[in-house]
Amino acid sequence: MQPSPGTRFTANYATVTWDQLHRDARLLAETLIPRGPFKGIVAVTRGGLIPAAIIAREIDCRLIETISVVTYDEEEQGKPTVLKAPAAAGDGEGFLIIDDLVDSGVTAQIVRQLLPKALLACLYAKPSGRPLTDLFVVEVPQDTWVLFPWDTAPLFIPPLARKSGTPG
User: Fold this and answer.
1) Residues of each annotated binding site for guanine
2) Which of 19, 99, 134, 151 is catalytic?
């Protein structure tokens, strides 16, 4: 799939806006509808929560379970730990797993081990993790750090004329 208009990729960082995230989640939902109906969704926390909510609305799914796997401490990858298992999903049969990004694939491997019969879909995929996802919207270069809307904040930037010392 091609990125939607508005996705910016610059200098090893990709900034995803709220609008872009919503468009990409709806695009993913559109490709998921023919594969349903699903018994429920398992959102991979924290990044998969917002995409899962959007997709749940679009595919008319009411049951949302979560799995919490911690693999990063800031930007450093550590030992993966499951903080919360998705008890309601059983082995995953009939369930859809949603995450924001599959990167190295470490989290996806753990989730797949716990839910081997579920369908795994992500908004964004890097080459190392891509083989572990069933569907994704945009492929991102492996060396790119994705900045999601919940990781950033709007910031006032003064007009260029003020920076150059020109009286305003």
Assistant:
1) 103, 146
2) 99
User: Which residue in 73, 103, 134, 151 is the catalytic one?
Assistant: 103
Q: Residue 73: pLDDT above 90? A: no
At 31 the pLDDT is: 97
Mean pLDDT value of segment 123-140: 96
Q: Does the active-site annotation cover 103?
A: yes
Helix (H) or strand (E) holding 54: helix 49-59
* Contacts of 114 by beta carbon, 8 Å cutoff, 6+ apart: 67, 82, 85, 86, 92
pTM for the complete prediction? Answer: 0.82
Please give the CATH number for the structural domain made up of 8-163: 3.40.50.2020
Domain boundaries of the chain, sorted by first residue = 8-163
